[in-house]
Amino acid sequence: MVAVAWALADGGFDVSAVASSRARLAPAHLSRAVSERLVLPDPLTAQDAFLDELVGVVSRERFSVLIPGTDASLLRISSGRDRIGPHVRLGLPAHEQVVRSLDKTDLIATAERHGLDPPLTVECRGFADALAAAREVGFPVLVKPLTTINDDLTPTQRLNSVWVEDAGELRRQMSRLGGAALIQRRVPGSVVSFAGVFAGGKLLAEAFSRYDRTWPPKAGNACYSETLEAPIDLRRRVVAVLEDLTWEGIFELELMEGDGSAWHAIDMNPRPYGSMAVALAGGANLPALWCRHLLGDQFDPVRAAPGVFYRWTDADICHGLWQLRSGSLAAAARVLRPRRGVVHPYARRSDPGPAAARLVELGTAALSSVRARRRSSANRLPAVIVGAGPNGLAVAAHLRDAGIPVACFGEPLESWDRHMPAGMLLRSRRRSSHIADPNQELTIDAYERAQGTPVSRPTITLEEFVDYGRWFQRRVAPDVDTRKVIEVAREGGAFRVKLEDGEELAASRVVVAAGLSPFMNCPEPFVALPSAVRSHSYEHSDLARFAGLRTAVIGSGQSALESAALLHEAGATVEVLARAPSIRWLGEDSNGATSTTLETRLRAALVPPTDVGGVPHGWIAAVPDVFRNVPESLHPSISFRCIRPAGAGWLHARLLDVPISLGRQTVAAEVRDGAVELHLDDGSSRTVDHVLLGTGFRIDVSRYPFLAAELLAELELADGYPVLRAGLESSVPGLHFVGAPAARTFGPVMRFVVGSWFAAPAIARRAADQRQPPVSFAFPRRLRK
């Protein structure tokens, strides 16, 4: 908040300003009053990451006082005071009192006890209850949240009050507020603000002002106000309310000024507030006085001088245009005329940076509004995501960040938990295993800090990744619906999605993130073998059941080789059979030793951060827009060089006691006397109890059982892959594919978790009708690990 930075700098303090990583351009960061600019995760939507990184900042650097600037940061800081408090002064009351200060129902009861009765207010649960209350109170009514921060909503939101004129708008607002709200009668009169610093039962500073105008007009913030002398009786009652709330710190109590000495409390801000610049101009430097108090200074109570004017310029212009549209020409002229001698929330002659940032912010908001209006009516429906693996969850996070409603179906991390063997290590390194989120706040590093448990590096275990993925899911899509989607069909300009229990819903678009289950590759001659003696590596989460069995593993890639190692360690008798003439070990030389030659180390240093492919092919794949635009004849070569069969170097030592027959192809397989006879192309044979196929996958999206026949008929395919355009959108408008099915168009990196950093934002931009950048990367460029 710019006014806080000005206030503290004027008070002689060095100021470090924190902005959310969601903010494109924070006005306070452009202020000359700020000596250090910090960017942290958003305390509203990434609570754990915000707290973890804030603890890291205050523990590394010496700060005197920490002042929360928003309701969300106040709540998170208060909840984490045991970790933050040892490093910096907070001065907050008990956490229970902080929660009370944000509870509007508590404020009503407290204000009534001290003669500041709020307007008639009814607490409601559900639309029917709210409609009955609104009819009793009389439309129009003010609809207010029970508390400003609601962690029960997805995503977590800061909720504001809204002026409601009719039952239809009331229904929409009750839905926005999660079905619980206060219905309040608006009484005639002016809004006044009694703000200050309160500590130890004393009012250390105060600033009293009357709002001449607000924006929005009937239930908004001050856009023009003037400081006044506070009535003695009102001061006494405000102090009583603060004592009852046991509040400590900066505050603002908003009231309606009724006839005579009637005052009606309507809201409480337990933190720096929007129009605080007027208090500073009136001589009441609230943030600096609060810091001085916490540092032990003694001073006489301070009151802001009367006759100081405040103007929030862009909001006041909006108010004037509203008057103009309403036909009140005289009122509009009075509002829109330039004024001298007023203070502003963003503008100082000596500090133009915040005003420039505000102009950019307003321009960005205006463009977003125009884009939103361009969206079709179908886009008001939710986007349905089929699948809740890393790709599906990443898409859900980005769509919700873009303001698009989402319905996500599937068992979270099902493929990873049920179709990969226990004890498996990810071939991808830690740096390329983060799931994409819009603000890079839900990384493995953030998970590690939140859980307080170190995660393996550079290679992660399957169990660690599954736990990380579910932690990610709880933060971006806690409402995942585990029911299966059994049919997706077109219906007009939208989609009809049918669930396993028969329920149907309409969707604006569908994102297929359904994994690899239908695509398991079973080459000849193994097709004829019964499933009792033949299976695919993707079908097993526990290989211990093969203990004591003779097992042939077919293939020379990571899946085959790691399965062979796990089978051997589980007590099975294992042999690997592969057509390849040699095993390609990643990161090691042909003898399985880590190579230390200068050339090898240089090439390792130049490997793209996706860890998919080397130089130069891996870098082409790391930029899917580039891959898509190189000649199509080069695609197979680039893809092969990036994902050709290979084993992670750390597997080599685990396979020293496992026989590996290379350059051999199975030409026939048959069951004889309960065992499987495998006949190889060199004339030799093997007798085994089970054949485990590590032979990869053959993509053919027509095998997805939920895609309706008429939808498939419209779908342009090439070798079973959907032909995709920008935003990973298929030939069927609104139907998107992520993961391996996107690999033919956007490259082999789409097969890996790291590909979500390209796919998820691209789909969100398409859904929000935003232009795609010319080049996007398939990795998080700001992450270092």
What does this structure look like?
With 785 residues, the chain is α/β, with parallel strands linked by helices. The strands form 11 sheets. Strands 9, 10, 11, 12, 13, 14, 15 and 16 form an 8-stranded mixed sheet that branches. Strands 25-34-26-27-30 form a 5-stranded parallel sheet, covered by helices on one side. Helix 2 (47-60) crosses helix 17 and helix 12 (313-325) packs antiparallel against helix 13 (329-336). The model is unreliable at 589-594 (pLDDT under 50).
In brief, what are we looking at here?
The protein has 26 helices and 37 strands. Helices cover about 30% and strands about 20% of the residues.
Q: CATH topology of the domain at 382-483 and 507-518 and 716-767, what is it called? A: FAD/NAD(P)-binding domain
**What is the name of the CATH architecture of the domain at 382-483 and 507-518 and 716-767?**
3-Layer(bba) Sandwich
| Poorly predicted parts | 589-594
Helix content: 25-40%
User: Helix/strand-derived class?
Assistant: alpha/beta
In CATH, what is the class of the domain at 382-483 and 507-518 and 716-767? Answer: Alpha Beta
User: What best-fitting shape do the alpha-carbon axes yield?
Assistant: elongated
Distance between the termini: 31 Å
Q: Give average pLDDT, whole number.
A: 91
CATH superfamily membership of the domain at 382-483 and 507-518 and 716-767 = FAD/NAD(P)-binding domain
Rg computed from alpha carbons, rounded to a whole number of angstroms: 32 Å
Quickly count the helices: 26
